């Protein structure tokens, strides 16, 4: 009898051990799903859909650039509005972001003039900012979750990867843009469902440990080599300009270079590089400090941005997607904890200033790109301008 009972007992113990190991990760996974929906689907799915909407005659290249800039303007507006939001509202705002993003995705399936698409993209940008900030506030104010920044931000890359592959599958099936937007809405709902119960009223945010406390797991220890607050703001703003050209136009400028391969798969590689990179850059930040880790991150990103201007071969496009995708969320993973750590040293809201600078860079990127493309009919100019911005961002780390 002892032998008969020992199997189930050991099995039950193993199951309890596995469950105990997973339970602490559930809040982080829920917050990551908010970013997968709000950022990966709501914000960056447009990058994969952009060339298809141009193909279907729903947008011109210039109107698409305006829609992209409107989205980043909405992100800036939403981020600035969130600076006045109380911490206790974070769970409710996570749900608002999930619902609002799904509604925007569905609205883009409607037949309408370009001005309507531009307006919807602005609203989608607002909801993506709400998603990022509300999920971060909610997670980092839960006891024992401040160390979860890499898992949280990996949701962005996972959302990009999933939405891109959904677009590629729908495109292969012959779906046009309205049907694809409806499918993206459905996909965002599927991701939102397991996250939704975590944002009930039962878990109110609590004050986090001080970021300056010794051994605080969420942020690296202060280092004398860190940049000052204003150089960090400048570097972060230039980084926003530098990555956004690739993040807006990548499938568009590779669409005629891959033969029978859907260029959206290149955009999926962007997300594939982004998802695990947060853990790498977080570890490197702990090891090297803000200045050196951020400078290395931006240099690698600059190489990835300029590659398609140097070679129009498929391996260059793939390498660009992996390098830029593998660094742009890493920039956030490095810069935002550093800003939170040094916020006490300035008289203004450093996190708000960082968000505003990044938002301005993202708004300017598509507008400058549109002007340069209109002049030269080539993406080489925008990519060169983005690379210069990233090199300037790297230099700002050492001011």
TrEMBL record:
Residues annotated as transmembrane: 21-46, 58-80, 92-110, 116-139, 151-173, 179-196, 233-252, 264-281, 293-311, 317-336, 348-367, 379-398
Known SUPFAM superfamilies for this protein? MFS general substrate transporter (SSF103473)
Q: Per the record's keyword annotation, is Transmembrane included, yes or no?
A: yes
Q: Which InterPro entries match?
A: MFS_4 (IPR010645), MFS_trans_sf (IPR036259)
Keyword terms of this UniProt record = Membrane, Transmembrane, Transmembrane helix
Q: Which domain of life is it from?
A: Bacteria
Protein name, UniProt field: YbfB/YjiJ family MFS transporter
Q: Which organism is it from?
A: Cupriavidus basilensis
């Amino acid at each position: 009898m002892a032998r008969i009972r020992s199997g189930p007992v050991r099995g039950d113990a193993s199951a309890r051990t596995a469950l105990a190991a997973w339970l602490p990760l559930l809040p982080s996974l829920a917050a990551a799903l908010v970013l997968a929906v709000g950022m990966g689907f709501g914000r960056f799915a447009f990058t994969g859909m952009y060339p298809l909407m141009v193909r279907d005659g729903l947008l011109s290249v210039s109107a698409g650039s305006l829609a992209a800039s409107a989205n980043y303007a909405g992100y800036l507006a939403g981020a600035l509005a969130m600076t006045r939001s109380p911490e206790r509202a974070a769970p409710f705002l996570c749900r608002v972001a999930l619902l609002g993003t799904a509604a925007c995705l569905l609205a883009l399936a409607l037949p309408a003039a370009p001005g309507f698409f531009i307006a919807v993209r602005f609203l989608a940008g607002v909801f993506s900012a709400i998603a990022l900030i509300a999920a971060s506030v909610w997670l980092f104010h839960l006891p024992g979750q401040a160390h979860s920044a890499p898992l949280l931000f990996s949701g962005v890359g996972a959302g990009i990867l999933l939405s891109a592959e959904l677009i590629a599958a729908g495109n292969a099936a012959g779906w046009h843009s309205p049907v694809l937007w409806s499918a993206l809405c459905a996909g965002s709902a599927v991701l939102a469902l397991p996250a939704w119960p975590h944002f009930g009223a039962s878990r109110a945010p609590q004050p986090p440990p001080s970021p300056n406390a010794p051994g605080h797991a969420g942020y690296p220890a202060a280092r004398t080599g860190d940049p000052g607050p204003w150089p960090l703001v400048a570097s972060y703003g230039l980084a926003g300009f530098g990555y956004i050209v690739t993040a807006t136009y990548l499938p568009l400028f590779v669409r005629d270079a891959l033969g029978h391969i859907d260029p959206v798969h290149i955009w999926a590689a962007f997300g594939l590089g982004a998802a695990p990179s947060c853990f790498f850059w977080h570890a490197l930040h702990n090891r090297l400090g803000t200045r050196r880790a951020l400078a290395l991150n931006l240099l690698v990103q600059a190489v990835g941005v300029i590659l398609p201007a140097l070679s129009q071969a498929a391996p260059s496009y793939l390498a660009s997607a992996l390098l830029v995708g593998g660094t742009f969320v890493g920039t956030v993973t490095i810069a935002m904890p550093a800003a939170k750590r040094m916020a006490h040293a300035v008289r203004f809201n450093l996190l708000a200033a960082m968000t505003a600078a990044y938002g301005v860079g993202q708004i300017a990127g598509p507008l400058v790109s549109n002007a340069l493309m209109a002049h030269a009919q080539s993406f080489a100019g925008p990519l060169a301008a983005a690379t210069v911005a990233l090199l300037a961002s790297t230099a700002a780390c050492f001011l």
